[in-house]
């Protein structure tokens, strides 16, 4: 009989700065191509208009990067649209097209609250390490409850 904790779950994995981050697939509403028009709106307001929806942008590059990048590189072109529980729509600007990854639930290990005091770790609730023959990848699960607390 399969243990309930080893049941696979799906995650949307994306890279920001040097970090591989993820969200549960149920938290992702849509992934859209990041156009130059959206880029201008985001720089000036921190908001984008997609159809009839106004979306606040959560730019994790400011929090996870080294702060030395004055503008976005051309390969950064996707916006992951999410709706944190009982909240308005948010967009997370990501470097490349996210990947859908299936992981057993028991691979996602909670990060102790005492470690979550550092600025990078306070936005992360769980971590997983995926090893294959060529490399090892650490994936961090974003804590959507921190979205409002960490953004201006």
UniProtKB/TrEMBL annotation:
- Positions of the CheW-like domain: 8-152
From its record, what is one biological process in GO terms?
A: chemotaxis
Official protein name in the record = Chemotaxis response regulator, CheY subfamily
Give the source species.
Moorena producens 3L
Q: What is the lineage of its organism?
A: Bacteria, Bacillati, Cyanobacteriota, Cyanophyceae, Coleofasciculales
């Amino acid at each position: 009989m399969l243990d309930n904790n080893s049941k696979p779950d799906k995650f949307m994995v994306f890279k920001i700065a040097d970090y591989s981050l993820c969200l549960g697939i149920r938290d992702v509403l849509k992934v859209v191509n990041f156009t130059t028009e959206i880029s201008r709106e985001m720089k000036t307001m921190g908001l984008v208009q997609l159809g009839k929806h106004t979306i606040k942008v959560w730019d994790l590059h400011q929090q996870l990067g080294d702060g030395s990048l004055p503008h976005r590189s051309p390969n950064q072109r996707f916006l992951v649209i999410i709706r944190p529980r009982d909240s308005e729509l948010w967009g997370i600007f990501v470097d490349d097209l996210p990947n859908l990854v299936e992981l057993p639930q028991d691979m996602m290990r909670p990060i102790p609250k005492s470690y979550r005091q550092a600025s990078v770790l306070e936005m992360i609730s769980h971590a997983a390490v995926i090893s294959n023959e060529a490399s090892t990848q650490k994936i961090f699960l974003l804590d959507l409850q921190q979205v409002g607390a960490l953004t201006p």
